[in-house]
Structure of Ger(X)C family spore germination C-terminal domain-containing protein:
Amino acid sequence: MNEYEKALENEVNTAVKRLIRKLISRGVDPIGFGLRYRADRTTTEEEWRRWQAGYRGLPVEVSTRVHIEGTGVLK
């Protein structure tokens, strides 16, 4: 099972990373970092535009842990 768990972890990591990058490239903040940034600070529009430009260039790291408990075969 360990081999299958690792393979599935890699597949999920890749798919989620690709989805997050796609959302960010389209101007969406899927995690809500921008909302938190604006809520915690008083920013000018220029500061907000700089933050948005920098946010789009940030690296995305995804880490999952998969644990398969059984094969689903009934006896």
